[in-house]
Amino acid sequence: MDHMLALFLLCPFVFLSAVTSQNDNVCSRPQLAANIEMDEIQRFFNPGAVLALSCKQGYTPVLGPRTIVCTDSGQWAKTKLKCIPKTCPFPDLLSNGEIYYEDTVYQSTINYTCHEGFVLTGASTAVCQANGTWSALVPECKPVSCGLAPIPQFGMIVYDKLIRGNTTDYGVTGTYKCRPPYVVIGDARAECTASGTWTKTPECQVMTCPPPENIYKGYMSNNDDRDYDFMEVIRYGCHGDYVLEGSLQIVCQQDGSWSEKPSCKAPCSVDIQRGRILYKRQKLWIENLRPNRVLHKDIVSVYCLDKARNCGYAVPSQCIDGKLKIPECFELPGAAEYQLRSGSLPSEIDQC
């Protein structure tokens, strides 16, 4: 009886010792690298146990193997398995807008914005999903719309591009015009703005100019002593040999003033008593120039002598409003030389 009792008291210790010895080399639940997971939920594994590994949603396995084994030493075998995030395709460009993103891997975000004057249609953000696609399509940036430009009384607008329908898009421009004698008061240029409204509409008001003045040695097409309407025209001319310089007409402008008047420029006389000149491609003795007068801006050449080479050459001079400068190299021949030896003059000898 004592022997049995002693054996019974010994048995628990033997049993506990056997269990402890059997569990010394078990593997604890493994510590897995980032984004790797397993399906098992138990805490301890006996040697020889095999665990299947997988990647979390949104990640792709590379290298391997994809299983680990509990070894006799109670340690899990090593694995080179890595899980890298899935990649979404690069997003398309956004017309009239901007795309902001740092990466295109799983859980990356894209932000979309539109340029001034454009409105975003669609999602303003998109996220790279676990299946390698974006959560939303690329949106559109549509231009802000204005109605047709308001028209002032007695006025009109000329758009810079063809307009169809009753709407215009942001950035469309035009120019206001008024029917004479009305003129545009304010900014004649108009634009559909980013706020969906047109810039300020000008007004059309009557504008007149006072009676214009005549010009020296000139005449006007109309001498009426009255006010003249915007865009009315007066034409000028010159008397005799005077030449009109400038525009042939003046116009009543929208600020109530006339455009710049022309002027009548005086003719010139060729101030030499003896000699030959070149005028309008003809060689003339000065006494044959009848009358002795050339018009404003006409060119007359006199002849000078190159003494070193004993040859003559023509030097041009231009008539400018009644003044014709005779070149300094010209030497007036004496009366006898001119009458008796004209063949020796610079205009008659060999030309340089």
Automatic annotation (TrEMBL):
Coiled coil: none annotated. PROSITE patterns: SUSHI. The keyword Transcription regulation does not apply. GO terms for cellular component: extracellular region. It holds the Pfam family Sushi_2. CDD domains: CCP. This is Beta-2-glycoprotein 1. It comes from the Eukaryota. It is found in: Secreted.
